[in-house]
Design goal:
The protein is mostly beta strands. The protein is built from 3 helices and 23 strands. Strands 6, 7, 9, 10, 12, 13, 15, 17, 19, 21, 22 and 23 form a 12-stranded parallel sheet that branches. The chain has a 6-stranded parallel sheet with strand order 8-11-14-16-18-20.
């Protein structure tokens, strides 16, 4: 009998303990409906940025955000709690690398060695909203770390972003087949330029690959690179560039590499006055390495050693320019550059300034 009584007491204690546990877990449910409470201070999961913002930084050391606006939208990421306010935007963070917590502290992005993607900062791959701020925040995050790789995943529709600027070297944008609509740009779609341009120093390294660009703006540059060593633009489609715009501008660059760029699919890619496929020049400051007048032999801000490899374009007006090469730009190596002539015919620009020299091409089919 004593044995049975002991079993009964044990059963009651287990029931009481279970009831206490479930009541404690349920107490969190009205406040954090997506939170999964396992062990105090361990891992929590929330659905979105707003849900993460509703958490105090003390609730857990690590949180998994399932998406930016909603669970599964591609903006999911891990975060760790901080005992200090977010450094960015007067404590407000950027909702990607830093998310302000409910108690005024900060949730800090923990990529765990993975490549960041623009969706973490709220880029909209549906194209319903403008993603300029989100992509700029992602670029700023990488620049704060000295550069790195940024993925822009392909979506069903075009991303809408423009006037995104990087002031750091070492940035690599991998668009992975994404379409980018730059039509809202005031000056450029993507620009890489040192702070204080024209500066007497260059950034080192930039690349972009895998993107398809569309643009209905009649001015500005799609890709604008100034004073950068070893920039690379490859595996790009310029699906439509409106009359008057420039597809690629290279100012004051060294060893630029253009490879596998296709703009031949739509005849109206560059179809109006001053429409330019590639512009290649010095930065126009006219300064030598000692600060004096710039000469081709001593020009710290000149462009040099442009390589064009398997680049195709098309024009639909006699004013369309395949390659505008001018002012302190030296040496172009062309391995395959086709510029299809339509209507009156497009042309290879011959306006070469007195301080421009040298063109070499092998196995090329330069047309225009």
């Amino acid at each position: 009998m004593a044995y049975l009584a002991g079993q009964e007491e044990m059963r009651k204690l287990i029931i009481i303990a279970m009831a206490w546990y479930w009541s404690a877990v349920s107490a969190f449910a009205p406040v954090f409906p997506r939170a999964q409470a396992w062990t105090a201070g361990a891992i929590w999961e929330v659905s979105s940025t707003s849900a993460l913002q509703s958490l105090n930084s003390t609730v857990s050391t690590r949180v998994l955000r399932g998406g930016f606006s909603a669970e599964g939208d591609g903006g999911g990421a891990w975060y760790v709690s901080s005992k200090a306010a977010c450094p960015l935007n007067a404590g407000a963070g950027d909702n990607g690398s830093q998310v302000k917590s409910n108690d005024g502290k900060c949730w800090l992005l923990d990529l765990q060695g993975q490549m960041p993607n623009a969706l973490i900062w709220g880029a909209d791959k549906s194209g319903a909203t403008d993603s300029s701020k989100a992509v700029q925040n992602a670029v700023n995050y990488l620049c704060s770390a000295g550069g790195g790789d940024l993925r822009v995943p392909a979506g069903l529709n075009a991303y809408k972003f423009h006037d995104v600027t990087s002031h750091c070297g070492g940035l690599n944008i991998h668009a992975a087949g994404a379409t980018i609509d730059c039509s809202g740009m005031t000056d450029h779609c993507i620009q890489v330029v040192p702070t204080g341009f024209p500066a007497q120093r260059r950034l080192v390294g930039f690349s972009i690959d895998g993107a398809q660009f569309i643009n209905s703006n009649t001015s500005g540059r799609i890709i604008d690179i100034k004073q950068v060593y070893n920039p690379s633009i490859h595996d790009i489609v310029m699906a439509n560039v409106a009359a008057g715009a420039t597809a690629i501008r290279l100012f004051g660059v060294q060893n630029p590499d253009l490879r596998n760029i296709d703009g031949s699919g739509i005849p109206q890619i560059i179809n109006g006055t001053n429409g330019t496929f590639i512009e290649y020049a010095g930065d126009m400051s006219g300064k030598s390495s000692t600060g004096g007048a710039c000469t081709l032999g001593d020009c710290s801000t000149r462009s040099d050693l442009l390589v064009i490899n398997n680049v195709r374009g098309a024009g639909a007006n006699s004013s369309a320019v395949a390659l505008y090469w001018h002012d302190q730009a030296s040496t172009v190596q062309v391995n395959e550059f086709q510029f299809r002539m339509d209507w009156k015919g497009s042309r290879f620009d011959a306006r070469l300034a007195s301080q421009t020299s040298g063109i070499a091409h092998s196995s090329s089919s330069l047309k225009g």
